[in-house]
Amino acid sequence: MSRQPPERIPAKSPKARGTGRELRADARRNRERVLQTAQQLFAREGLGVSLDEIARRAGVGPGTVHRHFPTKEALYLAVAIDQLEQLIASAATLAATDDPEAVFALLSRMMANGAENATVKSALTAAEFDLRTAAPGVAAELTGHVADLLDRARTAGVVRDDVTAGEVMALVAGAFAAIQHAGAQSNPTRSAHIGKIILDGLRPPSR
User: Fold this and answer.
1) C-alpha to C-alpha distance for 177 and 174, rounded to whole angstroms
2) Which residues contact 163 (CB under 8 A, 6 or more apart)?
3) Domains of the chain: which residue ranges?
4) What does the pLDDT look like over 22-64, one tens digit per residue?
5) Contact yes or no for 65/58 (Cβ under 8 A)
């Protein structure tokens, strides 16, 4: 059974902990800078990077990091949710196009994102945190975009008729595992190749 995260990290409009007020613009910028720096350091140097070192690299004081993210687990979770929100923004942009192949572009980005953030996702799994439980609204919104783009692709005949959004999300999760098993997390070209092999299985069989 999944544990509850140490702190619920809001998906949108971050608020100061313990209040109903939205963060001031400068505090929000600092939080975003910390998230971006943490994501880059975790991907390059692993999860052993300290909160104080993340603060130094982000150009903020240690108190700023500890105030927003009192534990490493809270920061892992926030990084993962921030990445989901970026994917949702990409999905919204793709949805505004008429491209029936847009679902493949979104799924490719999801796989690349998962490969880049494999260490954070592994840490959350080890800590028994489930993003679908910790941030159900964000996870559901992304799945909804996948379903909408999949419907468009199905109508255009560029994906098979018998595939569901749930199955597609399972394939994306499987792609993360496949990329990790192949040791391709730090090799974008190889991880993209693995992802393409998986996505090709969504296309209608050749007649």
Assistant:
1) 5
2) 150, 154, 202
3) 25-200
4) 557 888 889 999 999 998 888 888 888 899 999 999 999 999 9
5) yes
Kindly report the pTM of this predicted structure: 0.78
Answer for the pair 135, 4: CB distance below 8 angstroms, yes or no: no
Mean pLDDT of 9-18: 42
Buried b (16+ CB within 10 A) or exposed e, 63-89: ebbeebbeebbbbbbbbbbbbbbebbe
State what percent of residues in the chain have pLDDT above 70.
Answer: 86
The encoded tokens of residue 18 equal 């313990």
Count H helices and E strands in the chain, helices first. 10, 0
How much is the pLDDT for 63? 92
Q: Which fold has domain 25-200?
A: Tetracycline Repressor; domain 2 (1.10.357)
The answer to whether the CB of 87 falls within 8 A of the CB of 110 is yes
Q: What is the DSSP string of 14-81?
A: -B-TTSSSBPPHHHHHHHHHHHHHHHHHHHHH-TT--HHHHHHHHTS-HHHHHHH-SSHHHHHHHHHH
Asked if 103 and 149 count as a contact pair (C-beta separation under 8 A), the reply is yes
Name residue 15's beta-bridge partners.
22
Q: What are phi and psi of 123, to 5 degrees?
A: -65, -40
